[in-house]
Amino acid sequence: EVQLLESGGALVRPGGSLRLSCAASGFTFSDYSMTWVRQAPGKGLEWVSIITGSGGDTYYGDSVKGRFTISRDNSKNTLYLQMNSLRVEDTALYYCAKGSGGHGCFDYWGQGTLVTVSS
Amino acid sequence: SALTQPASVSGSPGQSITISCTGTSSDVGSYNLVSWYQQHPGKAPKLMIYEVSKRPSGVSNRFSGSKSGNTASLTISGLQAEDEADYYCCSHADSSTWVFGGGTKLTVL
User: Fold this and answer.
1) CA A73 to chain centre
2) Which of A36, A92, B63, B81 shows a CA-CA span of 20 to 30 A to A74?
3) Three-state secondary-structure class, residue B81
């Protein structure tokens, strides 16, 4: 059974940093791309970033480019999101999701971890 | 820019509804990698449709997808109370990025 468990969400001041983690199990982690998607309170889904299975390629949404860094440790089956220069508008529930292996979608999602940026 | 979806749609049990998802030639129009997600309140999104019209194992055949030009659509037939949820489209886009729609709230009357 595929399981994704996010952690690391917290209350942080504007300009601060935070690292989110997503522990994966139930599939061969290194075979699949992984993505972060966020959802601000009461709002829709926003794609944040994606990383290929090997970790060799990463891509970002315009709103986080240059501030966030996605990475993975395939030996630990864990995905990360390093968030720097946080802004109030980064406040959201952050989901990690598994890529579907070339089918152009995200087939399994975690339950999310809440990041609140406030002074 | 986010894909454009109607903010809300509604239908009675047993009826059919269609949710549209309009993008551009940089996303929906150029890639057959449109997916749809169902999200119930307080829950994580669930994949309902991928590659425009394919259903994952376990998803009811009452859910179907299509695409024409820059617009994709999700149709739910035989509406049931449990279908009441938010629905989001998602498309692969240029520069290996992804974009979601703004979401549509489905109300089953």
Assistant:
1) 14
2) A92
3) helix
Residues of chain B neighbouring A6 (CB-CB closer than 8 A): none
Confidence at residue B4, expressed as pLDDT on a 0 to 100 scale:
98
* Partner A contacted by B55 (CB < 8 A): no
Q: What is the pLDDT of residues B81-94, one digit of tens each?
A: 999 999 999 999 99
Q: Whole-angstrom Cα distance, residue B88 to residue B19?
A: 9
Ranges of residues in chain B with a pLDDT under 70 are: none
What confidence tens digit (pLDDT) does each residue in A34-81 have? 999 999 999 999 999 999 999 999 999 999 999 999 999 999 999 999
Give the whole-angstrom CA distance, residue A73 versus residue B15. Answer: 48
A23: region left, alpha or beta (phi > 0 left; psi from -120 to 50 alpha): beta
Measured between CB atoms, does B109 come within 8 Å of chain A? Answer: no
> Looking at beta carbons, which residues of chain B come within 8 Å of A41?
none
3-state SS assignment for residue A41: coil
User: Does residue A59 sit at the B interface (CB-CB below 8 Å)?
Assistant: yes
How close A75 comes to chain B (CA, Å)? 25
Residue B41 is encoded by which pair of tokens? 């309140």
